[in-house]
């Protein structure tokens, strides 16, 4: 199905922390959704497929608010932050098989002014990856939140491959540098040096405060349709060349993995590249789900941009900066733009491929990838082409 | 350790397999599921053996000895009940039997932890009902 589905619309709300969005979680997502739908040259009533982010809304309520009287396809990929990129594959399958004509992918939340991640994890069993396993075997020992869960993998990486704090810092500093080129970024106008990074307090050693993503309010959305239908729409369609997703094993328990670095993306990336008929060397930029710095390094390895263990040196020397060999997260990512659950990574990839990334355009960008990381290491990837 | 009424940290739900696992801990025994067909150890508890498909298992007693596999040091608690404990270290211990479990090393400050450090199980009666398996440094 390579090239037979396209992203035809993108939309975002403003991204903010204080004083908060002033809107409901659903209201925010509807705002971004309507922008994406109209940008595509469609009317909300023409949406007949909706793929909500896990636990952030029901397709029925999106449809009722948008006036989608002909909803035919409703599905959610339950992979946490890997859901948006994974949903691109599912949406592409839906529009190329005739299950739906125009599929909406919304995501958004009041991640700053509403329920913070730390509260959700502490109080809502349904939202914890692993569910009862985390309740019975993690929480009693104070292993309660994502930076703690993932940092134990980062420490093993440091132990086995000599990965250094300064290399994690290079990722944080690069994301912040990119945010200075993006007026929409929450960290726009707030530059950060490696010294600032190293001086930030330890949150979950080896993760410092600046290894961790932002908590922000905001929403983003994209619209997917078939290439055939896209020809009748006004904008420049961006082709979904391929997509894939995968899970680590076991996916519901993070400590008992034979190979602790084998995550969902380890399985998904080779599949996506094979389906697209390209290699990592053909990629002009990468939007990597950057919940924490080490997850960027680890995904760069598992996608195959470098060998496992070489991620530390790969991210140094400006290689992942705009103008470097592989620009990563030109919008600033979750670390420095806003935490929009991975959907803003898709939006930024589309902007780059349209040539609309004002002030931070990757020259001659033809092929880009978007990844997702969620729960205890679920992974997804989509390969996009202009 | 502390009075039952004063313990505010999250506790396991004593139902199903967790009831058995923690029940053994209360009796000062660290036991893991072991497949009675292919003899593979496993943790966390499961309904069947992912290796051979058998639904038959026993709760086999572990030696209690293991080594530090990895850890994190929580400098800022992300759960209110652990705020007074910072800095504290959730530690992944790899048992001699091969299974790993998440716990803490009670007699070792976070900065002294090392990968490969030998540890042995101790039992912490955190409430009248719940005993958590924790670890202390052991001779090499």
Quick rundown:
With 386 residues, chain A is of the alpha/beta class.
Helix content of chain B: under 10%
Biggest chain-to-chain interface with counts: A-B, 38 and 40 residues
Average pLDDT for all residues of chain A: 96
Span between N and C termini of chain B? Answer: 28 Å
Number of helices of chain B: 1
What is the percentage of strand-forming residues of chain B? 25-35%
Would you tell me which CATH topology of chain A applies? Peroxisomal Thiolase, Chain A, domain 1
Number of domains of chain B: 1
Total DSSP E strands of chain B:
9
CATH architecture assignment name of chain A: 3-Layer(aba) Sandwich
Please tell me how large the radius of gyration of chain B is: 16 Å
Task: State Rg of chain A.
Answer: 19 Å
The CATH homologous superfamily of chain A: Thiolase/Chalcone synthase
pLDDT < 50 stretches of chain A: none
Structure description:
The complex is a heterodimer of chains A (386) and B (140). Chain A has a single domain (5-113, 214-385), classed as Thiolase/Chalcone synthase (Peroxisomal Thiolase, Chain A, domain 1, 3-Layer(aba) Sandwich). Chain A is built from 14 helices and 11 strands. Chain A has helices spanning 25-39, 59-66, 83-97, 117-123, 132-137, 146-161, 165-179, 194-199, 227-230, 264-276, 293-303, 311-314, 333-336, 343-354, and strands at residues 5-12, 49-50, 73-74, 102-110, 202-205, 207-208, 217-226, 238-246, 285-287, 367-374, 378-385. In chain A, the strands form 2 sheets. Chain A has a 9-stranded mixed beta sheet with strand order 3-2-4-7-1-8-11-10-9, with helices on both faces. In chain A, strand 5 (202-205) and strand 6 (207-208) form a beta hairpin. In chain A, helix 7 (165-179) packs across helix 11. The model of chain A has no long low-confidence stretch (mean pLDDT 96). Chain B has 140 residues and is mainly beta. Chain B has one helix at 16-26; strands spanning 31-35, 41-42, 57-61, 65-71, 73-74, 91-95, 100-103, 118-125, 131-137. The longest helix of chain B has 11 residues, at 16-26. Chain B is globular and about 45 Å long. The relative contact order of chain B is 0.20. The model of chain B has no long low-confidence stretch (mean pLDDT 95). The chains are: A alpha/beta (386), B mainly beta (140). Chains A and B meet through helix 4, helix 5, helix 6 and strand 5 of A and strand 4, strand 5 and strand 7 of B. Strand 5 (202-205) of chain A pairs antiparallel with strand 5 of chain B.
